[in-house]
Amino acid sequence: MLKRTALVTAITSTLLATAAQASPLSLKVLGQPAGSGMIAQQKEQPFFESFSEHTGIEANVEYLPVDVAGIPDTDGLRVLRSGLFDIVSLRGPQVSRDEPSILGLDLIGMNTSFEAGRENIDAYSDYVDSRLQERFNAKLLGVWPAGPQIIFCRDEIGGLSDLQGKRVRVGDQSAANFVGGLGATGIAMPFGDVQQSLSRGVIDCAITGPASANSGGWPESTSTVLPIALQLAVNGYAINLDTWNSLTEQQQVELEGAIAELSNDIWGYSEALYEDAMRCNAGESPCEFGTSYSLTEVPVAQEDLDKVAAAVEEVSLPTWASQCNAVADDCEAVWRETVGQKLGL
């Protein structure tokens, strides 16, 4: 009788385990803000809404933009650690306040082109991943750029020197330090508040990518754009480690490969969006993805290019290194061994 009971129990356990494995996964995904632009609308959201098709993993996915979920975009890493969402589309500059190493992917003056950005970001991503695993119970799956961050102003400017005395919306502390060195005041502000703040004169200028500016209607409240790339606004995808460890080895391979493919796709799309948005914002053709405006595009002087290039060593690296080393002794050392060598620092 005991043997029979044990046999029934074993069979039942096996059937339950098999049924559990056969059941589709349930994943909650926290995405980019709904109004942040074409990357979220055309690449990210379709990927997660057709998750099984893209990954080969049977799953029921609930995708929510971070602003629709009512969660501050600065809380992305805390959300991952809590397990409230399984996968989070991290907004790099915003979450870097909780994990400074993320800023090491995109210091002012470090990624002045898409090509340079790919190399520098790849060189430091493994270190950032190790920090997320250690501190936030999260694994970094992919990294991508919103695009070159350039300067939009209400009034006409001729170059970086004209920012002196102005209030400039910035995306992170690295940018705030840079504009501060130019005599401007860097102001952190959620993307959704910028257009109205420009319109009312609360701020004089603001930094973002041209596609995001177009999507957010910034050209309605600005007159001039200075197209000098300060950084690439790096974002990424990360998964809660408990969720990751619950996947089979095959599912992990499929998910990692699919996110890598999505991230790579966004790199190319981001570059195409940048070029198109620059034409749209200036009222030029073809304008395929955005709204046509009539901003004045200021020619970039070599003097300003030199200022941005010098900012890595003179402004952004020293300040960031002191912040990052305070939470991780090897933060700057690893950066210098990887990215720093590529930049000749």
Automatic annotation (TrEMBL):
It comes from the Bacteria. One of its GO terms (biological process) is transmembrane transport. CDD domains: PBP2_TRAP_BpDctp6_7. Keywords: Signal, Transport. Residues 1-22 form the signal peptide. InterPro entries: DctP_fam, TRAP_DctP_sf. Belongs to the bacterial solute-binding protein 7 family. This is ABC transporter substrate-binding protein. It comes from Halomonas urumqiensis.
